[in-house]
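Re-running the complex after MR caught last week's input typo. The corrected sequence lines follow. Everything else is unchanged.
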Amino acid sequence: MQDVPNTVVKRLQTMAETHPDADLLTAFAERSLGIGERSRVLEHLARCGDCREVVSLALPEPDEVAADRSVKAGAGWLNWPVLRWGVVTAGLSAVVLVGLLQYRERHVDRTTIASKLTPVEERSVASSAPSANAMPASREAVPTSPKVAQSPTENRRQLSRKNFQGSMAFNTQRTTPAAMPAATAQSMSPRVPAQPSGSVVAGGRLNSAAKLAPPVPSYGYGAGTRQGASTAVEVSPVPAEVQTETASLQADQLEVVGKAKPAEQQMLAPAVVTKSSPTAPVKDDQPALRWTISNNGTLQRSVDGGMTWQDVSVATPVFKKKQMTPPTNMTAVDVAAAAPATVQSDKSIPAAKMKSVAPSRVPIVFRAVSVSNDAKEVWAGGTPAALYHTVDGGDSWTGVLPADSGTVLTGDIVTIQFPDAQNVSVTTSSGENWSTHDGGQTWHKE
Amino acid sequence: MRATQPIPPEVTLAVTELLAELCSKSACERVGLSREALEAILCEVAAKYLPSGCAQTDVRDFLLTLRVEELALARACAAGSNAAWELFLIRYREKLYQSALRIAREDSAARELADGLYAELYGTSLRDGERISKLASFTGRGSLEGWLRTVLAQEFVNRYRRTRRTISLDEENEDGEQFAARESEPLVAADTRLEAATDAVLAALEAEDRMVLAAYYLDGRTLAEIARMLGVHESTISRKLDKLTKSMRKQILAGMVQQGMARRQAEEALEVDVRDVQLDIRRSLAQESGKVAFLRKEGLSSVAAKPAAEKREVRAKG
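Corrected-run output:
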């Protein structure tokens, strides 16, 4: 700080006058003097070093003052400091949230455009989906099935309003009623994947939208009770024997699922959609199919012999598996719907109660991939305890959780051995070895 | 003090009007102070602080700002009520020692300080066979606790600070300060116009600004300390000082120019004076500390002040 001329200092000292009494000095320090008296005391203090020293010495402890303030501050949540910081925090949260959602939305947009999905294609997908073999069969065989569905209208709405992610995110705060039964079903009856029945269960509890942690896919039993993060609904691709109590919902849900699928795919897995559509540029029997795992653990597929790579989402509704799934077999599939924001609950559509919103880009970090000779059948595994299987070159994926007489695979999958279609063995980061000799229906822990 | 000031009629009226309220507020009878005694005290306090001829509403407002409960307690103690003393000791004994320790920063000095104050509070001196308690001078303008701290601080400033300075002469000798080069006399007498200009600028300042300047440049207080004295934030003081130093230099120069000095001359005067004044400050500070700040009848502080005066003489001779 710049010094004042010393003459100032000198002239500050003048003849001392009568000192204010202790009462006045106390009242001054406690700021209980009127303006007139205060200025008189100040006037004296300006001249009298001794009184300044007295006032300074007589000040209460700084922590006493602080303690007083904190007591006052603790009086209520609606006081000013709390509100002030609360507003700042909320504002920051909102900004980060919107930014995050915008980023995701843009990403999805890009992939959607890349797939060049025309309305015709979309329609064709829409029409092809309900006709999938697995659909009616699974409706009969499995009492409960995917509760994950989005109505087409909702999806379209979602696509059209990219700029309202913030508001949509808040909708995710609702915990859908359907999520709970699903979660309960999982946690109560964990079954081995050998069970012919399985279900797509995307359930879970939505967390507050203000939490900005990246969505962590929960892949285990009782996942429904875990807290999802951010805008994502937790998706628990756990094979579960589904309870029959929910069967009443079933028919409706399946129908809606069938309808919802095209739109969902358009949103979430454009590559898959293009392949399944007759007009899609990529054909199923494309010879130069290649697979890899990117640095960040994303499963990638190249349909042109490695020239370009597409991220592959393993998130696919169960009914997509038209060729492979036998009518009585429904293996649990992780429906990690990659919608960047949540779907609004639509009361009129029962199936829509269950939101399937899990980002396809983030959830699973793949660490191992094993491919058959024709690159159609692929086993991919990674973190956390994620094992996926496709037999149609990545169109549809089956989430597999190896389990053997009550024990399930734990840890992350680090290697996959895949000598032929029937024999698969995997090792995990926790040192477990699992193998199957019937193409993944039953598993043995070694 | 009690009998010295005549009580203006408006004070009496206001006190009478508010007596019942203040009496219940102060719970004076519980500590052994009668309603009449409280009335007399209130009149005395109001007459002491309020200018004569002020409106009755002003008196009312004033009375309502008083801490009557603590006032009643203090005065009851002064009057020798045992119940009041017990309450006083319970409430303030511990705090008083703590405050003394914080002010003196040293245990034995703190104890001495606090004990000395206790003696005064209890009333050691007799006048016409009556104990005079220091508590009788409490007027309830601020809190009793704050008042006790202030009184302790005054006592400390009077006694211990000066004593320490006296002792420090020996320490200075040990440090070899007696061999220090003689301070040269100021070669250039400060221009009276400079002083006049400075005075004018200082006089134009708000009292608070001057106080801040003095506390910072004279007392060497930190910004935080000054801020706490004034009950504002540290940054407020920092900004204020910054602004003041900038504007004052300009104003003093302008003042000197106005008095007929050339701009350059004025600037030179300002700069030259800086060195000279440096010496003057040291001297005037020493003189300042030689005075007894809070004169009391006991004469303790005057005794303490003597060595300081001697010290100055020694310096002057040296």
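None of the earlier attempt is carried over here. Chain B touches chain A through 68 residues (CB under 8 Å). The two ends of chain B are 46 Å apart (CA to CA).
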